[in-house]
């Protein structure tokens, strides 16, 4: 009898131990006691969460074009698109950026998924009275939010741009050999992280916080993830004013960890099954990809472009993951999206 009690007690204690180790700490909500202050305007969503936003460009009521920009991994709305003032004024562009759930000053969403990201964008547009149609532009990890918009709110879009958008290696339409070979090209720690995020999501927090083995090289900003062009971009950025990064201020789990879980988990749809949003050419969708990108691999983006020929695909031969930040590329991307001044596939 006694040994049986000891076994049961051991199992219970072991379970409690693993629960304590695996369970991430609660987030520190902005505006709560002990949490970061609220310094940005925010809207209250239907589910009670708050979403922080930032407005740039020309005044909304005087604008000709309205763009909602979706930030990348480990970033916030406070890193604005490097679009020139000249282009903004020439075309009359109103820019709206926001902190995705769990990032910056936006409340976490424990139920965050690709669909919820799209619905957050729609509700933000409605509460700020952007009108029936608006443009969306997502960068890197922000690309999955744009795929969500294409799937769930296509009737609200005037156009969309996905810049080096993240790719889920487990999308069903990928030939298994293609996705496997591309996956093997990733740096080994990144392979492990994405595999855990997809296959054993309950272990991601433990994996990302352990100190024995390197985890996500993207989260650690490891130099191996940068191409030669990216390193040149970083050198140029060092001369720019420093912006405080508040991406993780409410906690790492509901910001960067949740991003990995959503992006590389099981999606409710396959993006390569999305049909043409603009059969009458009343709008356009674009993918922009750097050929030398080490985070988002070009061969998978090329396959997507062949499966979705109605999306205009632009490939930058010398470009890495950060190509849009320099040399006027953001202006080119936005001009192409808004007025369709044709840029050939490079």
- What is the first-to-last residue Cα distance? 75 Å
Mean pLDDT, as a whole number?
90
- How many helix segments? 11
> What is the assembly state of the chains in this entry?
single chain
Number of strands: 8
Largest sheet: 8 strands, mixed
Provide the low-confidence segments as ranges.
11-16
One letter per element, helices H and strands E, the order comes to HEEEHEHEHEHHHHHEHEH
Tell me the strand percentage band. Answer: 5-15%
Helix content: 25-40%
**C-alpha Rg, in Å?**
21 Å
Major sheet: arrangement of strands: 1-2-4-3-5-6-7-8
Structural class assignment: alpha/beta
Shape from CA axes?
Answer: globular
Question: What are the SSEs and their pairings?
Answer:
Layout: H1 2-22, E1 42-44, E2 50-57, E3 65-70, H2 85-91, E4 93-98, H3 114-127, E5 134-139, H4 143-152, E6 157-163, H5 176-185, H6 188-199, H7 204-209, H8 228-237, H9 253-264, E7 284-290, H10 298-307, E8 312-316, H11 329-339
Parallel strand pairs: 3-4, 3-5, 5-6, 6-7, 7-8
Antiparallel strand pairs: 1-2, 2-4
Helix pairs in contact: 3-4, 6-9
